[in-house]
Design brief:
- It is a single chain.
- By secondary structure, the protein is mainly beta.
- About 5% of the residues lie in helices and about 45% in strands.
- The strands form seven sheets. Strands 1, 2, 20, 22, 23, 24, 25 and 26 form an eight-stranded mixed β-sheet that branches. The chain has a five-stranded antiparallel β-sheet with strand order 11-12-13-14-15, with no helix packed on it.
Length: about 475
């Protein structure tokens, strides 16, 4: 982090002012001239319960989704899976309309013959632009070659005119080690689009930009480490510091770029100057691993997007976090598009915790419950939302004041409940995931969580000491945030 601090002390002081953090005297003095980053600990995020939007599917979503607002007030989402689909809905995430193929793979032998994924829809001057991830050589033992092109649409994304390539690696060889892809783009509010991409030869993120007024091929330039002077086509971009990801948004309340990286948990990074990032210590979503060898005993979270309430990715304090989800023990035929409503804010003082995620109880048609912070998909069961039990932390609170809770789930019974970490087997169930952290003792703004049992000895979780008159209280699990 020292190098980051040296490189962007001026930019970070601008960010601090934008976030109104310097109104706090203690923090303001720290920012006065010693080169420290701003109060990154003053940013807080709250996530609500997950909602399944689409799935299961064997091909999409296979990229971050992008959403635009249509003239009639409805929304259109672009969901990539080799072929990009357009799906309409009443809200940015209620994408329930028929799926229409709007961009298919290129013809055999072309440099897009494995597929074309729209990863970002960008509002230009009187026209919609699409950032396109392309792949060819699907069966190459070194992996498919990936590169980025741009297209434009004048009918809100139903048809696209491909303008040409804009971002390629400098290596030249058309195989995965020389790929640059998996980009998303964001309006930098300075007259430029910024595309954050993954360079496959060293798995480092890079960034290129082009003027919003004319983001055509030949106008994209990569950050070289010394300026925006490396050509987008074949130029040598500088790898960004840290595992910051490529899923981008612009936070209008703070005038900063946000990136999310899926790295054994979703992690949020922030930059004012578009090239130097600092990462929030607490994950947005807590999960065990990124295992792409499916099926696997763990779940898979991938391709996050931040979608604004009015579409696109200029988010305010309220936004939607979307992602691809594959349940444990399932293969890629069981892809789901999942969304969580979210809020982000900056305060004048450090926040603890910085991230809280909803703990929810769901109920099956037979009355069996599942208490979880994650999505609820299981063969033979269909769960409906039963209510909020509070919010868990995604990282342990300081000074040993927390308890780590695992989520236990039985495939046979369809019952899911919480137990102290490592105790699912002792409770006669199987561990599914880490649910999060609760306080071990009562704190201001918390409510208790109780492990209860029905007469059938099946577990359920309640925040009432009387177990809602549905069963017997067995133990106190901890205290969740309200």
């Amino acid at each position: 982090m020292a190098a980051l601090t040296e490189n962007c002390s001026i930019g970070w002081r601008s960010l601090a002012a934008a976030l109104a953090i310097v109104s706090n005297a203690a923090v303001g003095s720290a920012l006065a001239g010693d080169g420290l980053p701003p109060c990154l600990q003053c940013i807080a995020v709250r996530l609500e319960h997950p909602i399944v939007v689409r799935g299961p599917s064997d091909h999409e979503p296979d990229a971050p989704i992008s959403v635009i607002k249509l003239p009639d007030g409805s929304f259109r989402g672009f969901i990539g899976g080799g072929t990009t689909l357009a799906v309409d809905g009443a809200t940015p995430v209620a994408l329930s309309g028929p799926a229409r193929a709007v961009l298919k793979p290129g013809p055999p032998g072309s440099q897009s013959d494995c597929g074309r994924w729209i990863t970002t829809a960008m509002q230009g001057f009187g026209v919609l632009y699409g950032l396109i991830h392309n792949e060819t050589r699907c069966n190459d033992p070194k992996g498919a070659y990936q590169w980025i092109s741009i297209a434009q649409s004048r009918d809100y994304g139903l048809t696209w005119d491909i303008l040409g390539p804009i971002i390629t690696d400098e290596e030249g060889e058309m195989a995965r080690p020389a790929s640059e892809g998996d980009c998303t783009a964001v309006d930098g509010h300075d007259g430029y689009w910024y595309a954050y991409c993954m360079r496959r030869r060293d798995n480092r993120p890079i960034v290129a930009r082009a003027p919003i007024e004319n983001p055509v091929p030949g106008r994209w330039m990569k950050w070289s480490g010394h300026g925006w002077n490396a050509p987008g086509l074949g130029g040598a971009g500088a790898g960004l510091i840290g595992n910051v990801g490529t899923s981008s948004a612009y936070w209008t309340e703070g005038n900063v770029i946000l990136l999310i990286a899926p790295s054994a948990s979703f992690r949020l990074s922030i930059s004012e100057d578009k090239v130097h990032f600092a990462t929030v210590a607490e994950p947005l979503i807590l999960y065990d691993e990124d295992n792409w060898q499916r099926p696997a005993p763990t779940e898979l979270y991938a391709y996050p997007s931040m979608v604004a309430g009015q579409g696109f990715n200029n988010i305010a304090d309220h936004f939607f976090l979307t992602y691809m989800y594959v349940p444990p023990d399932e293969d890629f035929s069981q892809r789901y598009l999942v969304v969580q409503e979210a809020r982000i804010r900056a305060s004048a003082e450090p926040q603890s915790p910085q991230v809280r995620t909803a703990l929810s109880r769901w109920i099956d048609s037979d009355g069996r419950t599942w208490t979880t912070t994650g999505p609820t998909m299981a063969p033979g069961h269909s769960y409906s939302y039963d209510g909020n039990l509070g919010y868990l932390m995604t990282a342990a609170p300081p000074q040993n004041t927390g308890v780590k809770l695992d989520e236990c789930y039985s495939d046979e019974t369809g019952i899911g409940f919480l137990a102290e970490a490592g105790r699912c087997a002792a409770e006669g169930s199987k561990r599914r995931r880490t649910a999060g952290y609760a306080f071990s003792s009562e704190q201001p703004g918390t409510n208790p969580l109780y492990n209860c049992t029905f007469e059938s000895n099946a577990h359920f979780v309640s925040k009432r000491s009387d177990c809602e008159y549905k069963g017997v209280r067995e133990s106190l699990l901890g205290f969740a945030l309200q």
